[in-house]
Amino acid sequence: MATWTALNFQDAASPLMEQLIFFHDHAMLVLILITTLVGFMLSSLFFNSLTNRFLLEHQTIETAWTILPAIILIFIALPSLRLLYLLDEVNSPSVTLKVIGHQWYWSYEYSDFAQVEFDSYMVPESNMTKASFRLLDVDNRTVLPMNTQVRVLITAADVIHSWTVPALGVKVDAIPGRLNQLSFQMNRPGLFYGQCSEICGANHSFMPIVVESTSVKSFLNWISSHSEE
């Protein structure tokens, strides 16, 4: 999860987030090179009183500073398009989770299992322990198996919400009357925190998300215990 001193992304917990971080680093490298080149040219203009009279009205430099940015944009656009299609790719899922946004809590339904559904509310400050995270912990976590392809179907019952978990690299709007879909796979166990990322009313800040990544065996035991209830 994010901390006060963190200036970069959270540690990736899915292959999608790893690819997003790689693309961010690639784009930042290109930006640093451009900034360095432009800064050098500006500083040389400030401190150099000499000039090249053949470059004042010349087609060569005009051609160069038109073609070079186009080539740089291609180096950014191609990985961006690849990643865009990768994020929309839905492989054959092993688990389907339905998420419904309400004012101001989340409802979860495990469509593959009978009668496994629950609401997830933020833990109020009066019920928190010393190990709890303020505004982030919930009473019912969303338990999912790691190293398993998960499909999430997202909608809302009242206004637009947004189901967002930064460590997984997922952010999808929950829109009333519409069913949005995302797919991801978690590659390590842990707790991954998120929040609603669409302003949805007075208590928008108080509908967190906690995804618990466990082994397949632990997930099936958890499902069994909830099915019996």
Automatic annotation (TrEMBL):
<comment type="function">
    <text>Component of the cytochrome c oxidase, the last enzyme in the mitochondrial electron transport chain which drives oxidative phosphorylation. The respiratory chain contains 3 multisubunit complexes succinate dehydrogenase (complex II, CII), ubiquinol-cytochrome c oxidoreductase (cytochrome b-c1 complex, complex III, CIII) and cytochrome c oxidase (complex IV, CIV), that cooperate to transfer electrons derived from NADH and succinate to molecular oxygen, creating an electrochemical gradient over the inner membrane that drives transmembrane transport and the ATP synthase.</text>
</comment>
<keyword id="KW-0812">Transmembrane</keyword>
<feature type="domain" description="Cytochrome oxidase subunit II copper A binding">
    <location>
        <begin position="92"/>
        <end position="225"/>
    </location>
</feature>
<dbReference type="InterPro" id="IPR034210">
    <property type="entry name" value="CcO_II_C"/>
</dbReference>
<dbReference type="InterPro" id="IPR045187">
    <property type="entry name" value="CcO_II"/>
</dbReference>
<keyword id="KW-0999">Mitochondrion inner membrane</keyword>
<dbReference type="Pfam" id="PF00116">
    <property type="entry name" value="COX2"/>
</dbReference>
<keyword id="KW-0186">Copper</keyword>
<feature type="transmembrane region" description="Helical">
    <location>
        <begin position="27"/>
        <end position="47"/>
    </location>
</feature>
<keyword id="KW-0472">Membrane</keyword>
<dbReference type="InterPro" id="IPR008972">
    <property type="entry name" value="Cupredoxin"/>
</dbReference>
<keyword id="KW-0679">Respiratory chain</keyword>
<keyword id="KW-1278">Translocase</keyword>
<keyword id="KW-0460">Magnesium</keyword>
<comment type="similarity">
    <text>Belongs to the cytochrome c oxidase subunit 2 family.</text>
</comment>
<dbReference type="GO" id="GO:0005507">
    <property type="term" value="F:copper ion binding"/>
</dbReference>
<dbReference type="GO" id="GO:0005743">
    <property type="term" value="C:mitochondrial inner membrane"/>
</dbReference>
<keyword id="KW-0249">Electron transport</keyword>
<feature type="domain" description="Cytochrome oxidase subunit II transmembrane region profile">
    <location>
        <begin position="1"/>
        <end position="91"/>
    </location>
</feature>
<protein>
    <recommendedName>
        <fullName>Cytochrome c oxidase subunit 2</fullName>
    </recommendedName>
</protein>
<dbReference type="InterPro" id="IPR001505">
    <property type="entry name" value="Copper_CuA"/>
</dbReference>
<dbReference type="InterPro" id="IPR036257">
    <property type="entry name" value="Cyt_c_oxidase_su2_TM_sf"/>
</dbReference>
<dbReference type="GO" id="GO:0042773">
    <property type="term" value="P:ATP synthesis coupled electron transport"/>
</dbReference>
<dbReference type="Pfam" id="PF02790">
    <property type="entry name" value="COX2_TM"/>
</dbReference>
<dbReference type="GO" id="GO:0004129">
    <property type="term" value="F:cytochrome-c oxidase activity"/>
</dbReference>
<dbReference type="InterPro" id="IPR002429">
    <property type="entry name" value="CcO_II-like_C"/>
</dbReference>
<dbReference type="InterPro" id="IPR014222">
    <property type="entry name" value="Cyt_c_oxidase_su2"/>
</dbReference>
<keyword id="KW-0813">Transport</keyword>
<feature type="transmembrane region" description="Helical">
    <location>
        <begin position="67"/>
        <end position="87"/>
    </location>
</feature>
<keyword id="KW-0479">Metal-binding</keyword>
<keyword id="KW-1133">Transmembrane helix</keyword>
<keyword id="KW-0496">Mitochondrion</keyword>
<comment type="subunit">
    <text>Component of the cytochrome c oxidase (complex IV, CIV), a multisubunit enzyme composed of a catalytic core of 3 subunits and several supernumerary subunits. The complex exists as a monomer or a dimer and forms supercomplexes (SCs) in the inner mitochondrial membrane with ubiquinol-cytochrome c oxidoreductase (cytochrome b-c1 complex, complex III, CIII).</text>
</comment>
<dbReference type="GO" id="GO:0016491">
    <property type="term" value="F:oxidoreductase activity"/>
</dbReference>
<dbReference type="InterPro" id="IPR011759">
    <property type="entry name" value="Cyt_c_oxidase_su2_TM_dom"/>
</dbReference>
